[in-house]
Amino acid sequence: MAAAPLYRDASAPVEARVRDLLGRMTLREKAAQMAQIERTVASPRALAELGAGSVLNAGGSTPRERASPADWAAMVDGMQRLALASRLGVPILYGTDAVHGHNNVYGATVFPHNVGLGATRDAELVRRIGEATALEVRATGIHWTFAPCVAVCRDPRWGRCYESYSEDPEIVRSFTTIVSGLQGQPPADHPHGYPFLASVRKNVLACAKHFVGDGGTDKGLNEGNAICSYEDLEAIHMTPYPDCIAQGVATVMASYSKWNGEPLHSSRYLLTDVLKGKLGFKGFVISDWEGIDRLCEPKEPRGSDYRYCIAQSVNAGMDMIMIPHRFEKFLEDIVFLVEKGEIPMSRIDDAVERILRVKFISGVFEHPFSDQTLLGIVGCKEHRLLAREAVRKSLVLLKNGKDQKAPFLPLAKNPKRILVAGTHADDIGYQCGGWTIAWHGDSGKITVGTSILEAIQESLGVQTEVVYEKCPTEATIENGNFSYAVVVVGEVPYAEWTGDRTDLSIPFNGSELITHVASKIPTLVIVISGRPLVIESQVLDKIEALVAAWLPGSEGMGITDCLFGDQDFVGTLPVTWYRSVDQLPINAGDANYDPLFPVGYGLKMFQSDDDST
């Protein structure tokens, strides 16, 4: 019997295994490794015959409605069995957007979105969230998450603003600790830029995104154009990447956006010279969803146009293509381009080496299947308590009492009657925001969690009557005899371009609702949003207290932990709270910086306000 090939030897050095396997591959097999396909097209032919390198699920693409963790694991394991039946038996990497917890999976813990975590200023908390998320992702058999987003959002009109920790590059940089949470902490002597994974049981591959300038586009347009010098690109938008690379981040996703008119997906200078050269990144670069298709107009190129897209992108330094549907067309075209000399074989070999390197360090050759013993960890109590802590620390108290000498919070725990109102008081979907169960998020009881109303009811004594009306009637407000009102307003969930806005007033006539209630009842307003919204001075004057709760996720009890004084507010603004959209873009450090509330602002209930700045 012939000896097993070197690439199968777990004790051999990774680079020797990579070279051995690469040397055994045909051009078509190499090309297939460079392909990432959507789970709905991951057929036996695609995996076993053609040997696709990777599979992903789109946001909201699930094995079935309310699929259990076991359903997910069975699906991924089934695909893996097919991949292992291919000629060389190269396992797939399965990737998913677990961007605030394992957010595609029903019943998983949903953590606050990044903007809320930015308000905590707590890098260790974010590392622990990375650890918890990795365990929940691993439990479903998945190896890789497309996180963290390390965008530096300079304009709240951008539909992905909530995926950014802050407008301040140093604050964003401080939260790259999540990479070590997800992947594990590399040892001190780990080679710079080399991909790392600590444990196949506890950790998942991370992906720093979107390289680079995604948060700096003109007017905050999603997939737009960042117009700036290289110096500014480096000082603002590139700042978090060296830290991710130093922690051995395995993958980097290219941005849909352009830099000075050149799409990142075809920028050889930024992908190859800067990211792989200057920054020393040794993992692989992946495109965004249909990202290479966007290099051609119209958006659905046909025929030879698609070849142009592939050549432009791969020659620029793209290693894996998130196709995600027309796999066979991609294979045919990329093979044609190499045979015609349009893409050098050396570029293909470099791309596949990087992909195989990540596969070998990930342990997927030795441990291709899911670990059944982890299933119970998805949405477990310990992770929900961590999410609750994150919610509490993310809250920013913007106003407390019309007179500073008479603070309104903490709220009394035993009043006779209180009013809870607003579109967002009893809605888990709204509370979680985009990238939750569905790609753009949804409303209602979309997953397991505690709404703000439920948290208030839970926190108050039995002697308190809690009256809840989403939009209270005149009669309720006039004759209710309420001790106070809690009005919860905010944005409808959105993702990517569906969230681009030029009008940032509170949706559903939120300002009118607040004014209506606050003119008769002492009112606390809680804003649920992925960004600061316009709060007119007359509205701010009328209310007693204002809390920014961002997009807190599934654990509403974190909000009441602060409202009723069990814990103090510690959050501070990670982004500028502007007065009106006419001021945009407005960032700390601007010459005429005149916001409603500056970056770093946040009041406390129990300490002197000296340390609130």
Automatic annotation (TrEMBL):
- The answer on whether this UniProt entry bears the keyword Protein transport reads no
Source species, domain of life: Eukaryota
Domain Glycoside hydrolase family 3 N-terminal, by residue range, is: 26-358
One Pfam family of this protein, by short name? Answer: Glyco_hydro_3
Q: Which organism is it from?
A: Urochloa decumbens
Give every Glycoside hydrolase family 3 C-terminal domain span.
Answer: 395-604
PROSITE patterns attached to this UniProt entry: GLYCOSYL_HYDROL_F3
Gene Ontology molecular functions: hydrolase activity, acting on glycosyl bonds
Q: Which UniProt keywords apply?
A: Glycosidase, Hydrolase
4Fe-4S as UniProt keyword:
no
**Member of which family?**
Belongs to the glycosyl hydrolase 3 family.
What is the protein name given in its UniProt record?
Answer: Beta-glucosidase
